[in-house]
Structures are given as structure tokens and as C-alpha cells.
Design a protein that fits this description.
eight-stranded mixed β-sheet, three-stranded antiparallel β-sheet, globular, 11 strands, about 240 residues, alpha/beta, Glutaconate Coenzyme A-transferase, 2 domains
Amino acid sequence: MGLHKIVANAEEAVQDIEDGMMLMLGGFGLCGIPENCIAALVKKGVKGLTCISNNAGVDDYGIGLMLQGKQVKKMISSYVGENEEFERQLLSGELEVELIPQGTLATRCMATGYGMPVIYTPAGVGTEVAAGKETRSFTMYGEQKEYLMEYAFESDYAIVKAWKGDAHGNLIYKATARNFNPMMAMAGRITIAEVEELVEVGELDPDQIHTPGIYVHKIFQGENYEKRIEQRTVRKAD
């Protein structure tokens, strides 16, 4: 695809995503989610998707919009969160859900980016998370423990959001919006990045870049970011 990876908008970025594909979507709660690409997928109407994401936003925002449109066949996440529709589809059996310990989810994403087919983790050993999975015993620091074998992911696309990016696909994330975005950007067979600000090559300080452009295939400047807060707690007035 060459060094210059800029596409016009979210619609062009997701135009090749088809029914039945597996997508990795960055973000945590409502922070750092690829809002424009999700809206474009809703508009496109693709169905039967498997979505790998820490959670699924809320009912009317983020992946929650895709759940409302019955576009998602399976969610691979670490928790349900504030999404009542996610909970309803899970409990009714309409949606296949694989709940994964958050650290395991993150490490499986990283393993994918590193080209490692499996990881071993003590998380989930002896619980229903381990059902049907291989375990092995290892000794570390003189202590022998059981570890669960977990597979890396094989996604068709990773879709992430960054604060700034350039035409080569180099990305900088801002504060907690960094979350799952860097590891998912590394893991995608094809990675789409939407950014708040698209700058000229050379404007980004190389020491500040979180995701090198080698991992990014398409990039565009998004618009109309809402930056919602999932839960707001305020002190009562005196």
C-alpha cells in the first residue's frame, strides 16, 4: 500500500469490510473508541461480525450501535459494562459471548502482534474459563504453578483511534485513550486508524510515537468526536 496511506473518510476506510469478518476495536469503555469507523460500519450494514473489544460501549454509542442493529454475531470481551442491550442479547442467547480476563485479552492481542501463536497464563486456571483448554505446569522463582494455554487472535481488521497521526501511519495516543489501541494496531492483518489530527510527515516527534506506521494500512482524520463519559459522579452542592 506504500508509505502514503491516507483515505478520505471512514466510509472509504471500511469499504472492504464484509459480512462474517473478525474485527479488533480499540478503546476502553467510551475512551479512545473509533467512533467514526463504527458509525460507518453501522451505515454499511455489515452482518455476522465477530468483535474483539474490551467491552461494547453503551446502548446508543460505540459498538452498542452495532449490537442494536444485530450486526454482531459474537463478542470477545472482558466485561459487559453499562450496555443493557449487550446484557439482554447475552442472557437471551441471541449473541455468542466469550468473556476473557482483561489481562489475558490484552496479552492475546499483544501475542498476535508479536507473531506468537499462544501464551500461557495462570489467570483462569481452575475456573470455567479453563473448560476444554490445555494446561501445563511451569516453575518460576522456585514455585510450580499450572498455566492455561490461550491462542492469539486471527482478525481480519483492527480499527483504532489515535490523537495524532501522519501520512505514514505513525500514531500518538493521548492519556488513557491509549488503552487497547496500540496492541490492537499491532495485531490487525489490516489496521485502520482514525485520528483527531492528521499532520504532515515529520511533524511528529519520533520519541513520542506510540504506534509506528509499519502497523497501519489506512488512516484518516475523523470528525465530530463526542468524547462521552460513561459514568459521571459529582459531589452534591453544599
